[in-house]
Design brief:
By secondary structure, the protein is an alpha/beta fold. The chain is 29% helix and 17% strand. The chain contains nine helices and eleven strands. The strands form two sheets. Strands 1, 2, 3, 6, 7, 8, 9, 10 and 11 form a nine-stranded mixed sheet that branches. It has a two-stranded antiparallel sheet with strand order 4-5. Helix 3 runs parallel beside helix 9.
Length: 291
């Protein structure tokens, strides 16, 4: 059985034409690699059991079996926006609703990444133009795009212009310009907010393989998470979470309780960034990385 499972994993990796891992001997903090790139893709409003183990989400299921499943990932609160703010700043910043005109003054990954000379972008599907700060446009929703709420981003045209339409991702990959950190925000249909789990799963099936195949992702990781679930477990629900890519040890599991603060801490530890807010008391995600 073990030999057959390993063979299946090898066939899948070959089919995806994944680049070989590079420089994974470089370490961040103890137990976390110094990732070449981190991509975080955030889906919406589903409990783990609605996605993993569901016939409606074969892509998620395959990725969870092939790469690393983070089994006890819990969102922070309800509704969406405070969870997104927590993910990029270690705090809900006092926000308790999906406001679209509010502005927050705390520090975020935009600040700490730039101070460490690391690049970043948000790739938002259906964003009408780089730097757009409006509440909505078609199936784009500002409430799922957290960095445009921070005053330090809003005050800088250069920073605002790092918030770009998702259509820019493929050209960036093609010219070797993927930023160190990328936040990918699918639109309201593809993130499963307004459309079905099957629809979001189908979108992921088309979106992810070109990213994983890119030479840019050697030594990189893609985190697939949900902002919140439908329950109050942990504050915002028990949601599905998967880590995929060349930095990940295939077939591994992280079983300790974690969430948005733990994911933020993992990124910070990988690159030696200062710990923001409640990430300081969260444990990084370890034990699923290639050595």
């Amino acid at each position: 059985m073990r030999r057959g499972r390993l063979l299946a994993l090898g066939v899948l990796a070959t089919a995806l034409a994944l680049p070989a891992p590079a420089a994974l001997t470089a370490r961040g903090a103890a137990g976390v690699p110094a990732f070449s790139h981190v991509v975080v893709v955030v889906f919406e409003n589903k409990e783990s059991g609605e996605v993993l183990g569901s016939r409606r989400a074969p892509t998620f299921d395959r990725l969870a079996r092939t790469w690393a499943r983070i089994t006890d990932y819990r969102a922070v609160t309800h509704p969406s926006l405070p969870n997104y703010l927590a993910l990029v700043s270690g705090s809900t910043q006092g926000v308790t609703d999906d406001c679209t005109s509010c502005v927050v003054d705390g520090r975020s990954l935009a600040d700490t990444l730039e101070a460490a000379r690391k690049s970043w972008k948000t790739y938002a599907e259906d964003l009408p133009a780089p730097g757009f700060t409006g509440a909505s446009a078609g199936d784009y929703a500002k409430k799922h795009n957290p960095l445009v709420y921070f005053r330090s981003v809003l005050a800088s045209p250069a920073r605002r212009n790092r918030v770009v339409p998702l259509t820019q991702l493929a050209p960036d990959l093609g010219r070797g310009a993927l930023p160190d950190f990328s936040l990918v925000v699918p639109n309201l249909c593809h993130d499963m907010h307004d459309c079905s789990v099957a629809t979001g799963d189908s979108w992921l099936r088309g979106f992810l393989p070109p990213l994983l195949r890119s030479p840019e992702m050697r030594g990189g990781v893609v985190f697939l998470v949900f902002d919140e679930g439908g329950s109050d477990v942990g504050g915002g629900g028990h949601v599905a979470a998967v880590a995929a890519g060349p930095a990940v040890r295939p077939g591994s599991r992280y079983t300790a309780t974690t969430g948005h603060y733990g994911l933020l801490r993992t990124i910070e530890d990988a690159w030696g960034l200062p710990r923001l807010g409640r990430s300081a008391s969260a444990a990084p995600i370890v034990g699923i990385w290639r050595r």
